[in-house]
Amino acid sequence: MAAEADGPLKRVLVPIFLPEECYDQLFVQWDLLHVPCLKILLSKGLGLAIVAGSLLVKLPQVFKILRAKSAEGLSLQSVMLELVALTGTMVYSITNNFPFSSWGEALFLMLQTITICFLIMHYRGQTVKGVAFLACYALVLLVLLSPLTPLVVITLLQASNVPAVVVGKETGDLLMAGIFVISSLCNGLIAAQVLFYWNAKPPHKKKKEE
Q1: How many CB atoms sit inside 10 A of residue 52's CB?
Q2: What phi and psi, each to the nearest 5 degrees, are found at residue 71?
Q3: With contact defined as beta carbons under 8 Å apart, do 110 and 83 qualify?
Q4: Mean pLDDT lowest for which of 14-28, 77-91, 128-142, 167-181?
Q5: Using CA atoms, how far apart are residues 41 and 23, in angstroms rounded to an integer?
Q6: N or C: which end of the chain has fewer CB within 10 A?
Q7: Which helix (H) or strand (E) holds 129?
Q8: Residue 209 has what DSSP assignment?
Q9: Omega prior to 15 cis, within 30 of 0
Q10: What is the C-alpha to C-alpha distance for residues 18 and 13, in angstroms, rounded to an integer?
Q11: Cβ neighbours for 38, distance < 8 A, ≥ 6 positions apart
């Protein structure tokens, strides 16, 4: 009976919130103070809460545009730059097999952002252009997620996300500019390392003479 009772709970928690060994540790052996497993549970829970919260970030803006039937005051260029940044994060995470809780936020924000892009075009009388943009974006996304795209391209796209966001929302603030410079340098360093080691071959070990 106990096994039947904890079947549904296990299906909910494993593997979304916990690996099976942690589920057994916490809910079979009832070791509720097992710190490593509690950290995993807390981390996954917070990650999924952030993902759920991301559903509400841009929806009010979408509804406001629909109610007003106008996207006046919105910059299409800024929204598109933000879309590039979100796409880079999402594609990089999927390619590297990161858990959904670490990139699900980018997915839902991307869907909301591309909706805003379409609405801006639609209310500017460019509906056909908006539909074409959606189709082109879907095609580019499929190519980026396919084996045809080298990892170095994905890494460079991810490295460009901070500049894309800052350029899209530039305020002239010195602190923002400083963060932009430091983040860009760090991302550039990572991209440079990937490019440098992309075709590097490990040194051949010399055979030991007997």
Answers
A1: 12
A2: -115, 30
A3: yes
A4: 167-181
A5: 10
A6: C
A7: helix 127-145
A8: P
A9: yes
A10: 6
A11: 26, 32
- Do residues 84 and 161 make contact, with C-beta atoms less than 8 angstroms apart? yes
Whose tokens are 């490019």? That residue is 195
Determine the residue type at 21: E
Residue type, 82: E
How many whole angstroms separate alpha carbon 14 and alpha carbon 12?
A: 6
CA 98 to chain centre: 9
- How many residues in the chain? 210
Here the contacts of 40-49 (C-beta below 8 Å, separation 24 or greater) are 41/17, 43/101, 44/16, 44/17, 44/18, 44/99, 44/101, 45/17, 47/99, 47/101, 47/102, 47/104, 48/16, 48/17, 48/101, 48/104
Whether 1 shows a pLDDT value over 50: the answer reads no
More confident residue, 55 or 175: 55
Residue that wins the pLDDT comparison between 184 and 149:
149
Angstrom CA distances, 208 to 97, 203, 204, stand at 39, 15, 12
In tens, the pLDDT along 163-205 reads 655 555 564 544 545 554 555 555 555 555 555 555 555 555 5
Is 109 in contact with 86 (CB distance < 8 Å)? yes
Apex 87 CA angle, 85 and 93, nearest 5: 105
Report the run of H or E that residue 117 belongs to, with start and end. Answer: helix 100-123
Q: Which of 199, 190, 206 is nearest to 157 (CA)?
A: 190
